[in-house]
TrEMBL record:
The gene is IPI1_2. This is Pre-rRNA-processing protein. Component of the RIX1 complex required for processing of ITS2 sequences from 35S pre-rRNA. It comes from the Eukaryota. Component of the RIX1 complex, composed of IPI1, RIX1/IPI2 and IPI3 in a 1:2:2 stoichiometry. The complex interacts (via RIX1) with MDN1 (via its hexameric AAA ATPase ring) and the pre-60S ribosome particles. SUPFAM superfamilies: ARM repeat. Keywords: Nucleus, Ribosome biogenesis, rRNA processing. It is found in: Nucleus. It comes from Saccharomyces pastorianus. GO terms for biological process: rRNA processing. Its main location: nucleus.
Length: 335
């Protein structure tokens, strides 16, 4: 009797009960009551750090795997520059956006150029503080395995020279010249100049013109003072005689004026830089003044430049015009 009753109970567990009209469905024996309401206290402005215009959360999107997300993030920051130019967001913004110089997407690289122009038009001093990082990634782009990134590397150099030319030529004169020579296919100083990967004729004329313009700007800012370039000529003439007396007692025009002394940097000591070739000797040279930069360019770079631009001038076109302008500039500076 007991056994048959247990069997019936087991069968009931697997039988669907028929609902009767007008009666609700029976509740399960293990049903949980979820009709309770949590009691909370809601205070106005409870989250004091909540800001709908806070852009710090968008910084991580600059490393997003999607190209469109990176591009849209750069556009968002570009539109917000007037309101955040003096905020603490600028340092992490530049630190995380500068590596996009080597981004594989051309749209992202163009968006970064527009962002640099927007920052430079509002406050160029911010770009000057990050010159070392800019030069590092520009050199990486100049030696990148992708030809499109190499081609756009001098665009970043030209825009950087527009806003902080003095800092760039003082800190990385020889390094940038070697990089421009590399993208032009002219070889590097101290190496086999004839062993360029791609010859000038095989390169795109559009990119050659961009590279030559960057070289023109680099020579113009590195080998000419402001008076020779026609910038603030009246001021330069008025203070020329007293410059030696007034400069030691004024606040420096550039950040970290004694950085070239390398008092707080750690570097590997080289017993004899000359043993590693001409290139190593030039890279260890401090190029803080115009005379040193002129001497380094005249001794090591000028013969190669004159030889190559003569070939480009004969080919004609836009590249020939730019090469002719560069030839006139070199004649003005070194004759």
């Amino acid at each position: 009797m007991t056994k048959s009753r247990k069997q019936k109970q087991k069968k009931q567990d697997f039988l669907r009960k028929k609902l009767k009209v007008g009666k609700p469905k029976e509740r399960a024996s293990n049903a949980t009551n979820t009709s309770f309401v949590s009691k909370t206290i809601s205070i106005r402005n409870q989250h004091l750090d909540h800001d709908p215009h806070d852009l710090t959360k968008r910084l991580t999107l600059l490393k997003h795997h999607n190209t469109n997300v990176r591009k849209e993030t750069l556009i968002t920051f570009q539109k917000s520059i007037p309101s955040i130019i003096n905020s603490r967001v600028m340092t992490p913004l530049l630190t995380q956006s500068i590596p996009l110089i080597c981004d594989e997407s051309q749209q992202v690289r163009q968006g970064l150029i527009d962002l640099i122009d927007e920052i430079g038009s509002h406050d160029a001093e911010i770009l000057k503080l990050h010159c070392n990082i800019f030069v590092l990634y520009i050199n990486m782009a100049m030696t990148h395995i992708f030809s499109q990134i190499q081609a756009d590397s001098t665009k970043f150099l030209s825009h950087l020279l527009k806003y902080c030319s003095n800092e760039v030529v003082r800190k990385s004169w020889v390094k940038l010249l070697n990089g421009v020579f590399g993208v032009l296919g002219w070889g590097q100083v101290g190496k086999n100049e004839g062993a360029s990967v791609v010859q000038t004729k095989k390169r795109n004329a559009k990119y050659i013109n961009i590279h030559l313009n960057a070289l023109y700007m680099l020579v113009e800012y590195g080998c000419q003072d402001e008076r020779a370039r026609g910038v603030d000529s009246d001021t330069a003439v008025s203070f020329e005689d007293s410059s030696d007396l007034r400069n030691p007692y004024l606040i420096p025009d550039c950040p970290q004026p004694f950085e070239h002394l390398k008092l707080f940097t750690r570097e590997l000591k080289v017993k004899d830089p000359a043993a590693n070739g001409t290139n190593a000797t030039l890279l260890s040279l401090a190029t803080q003044d115009i005379e040193t930069r002129r001497a380094a360019f005249s001794e090591q770079f000028l013969p190669v430049v004159l030889k190559q631009i003569e070939i480009i001038i004969k080919e004609g076109g836009e590249c020939g015009k730019t090469a002719n302008n560069l030839k006139k500039l070199l004649a003005k500076v070194f004759d």
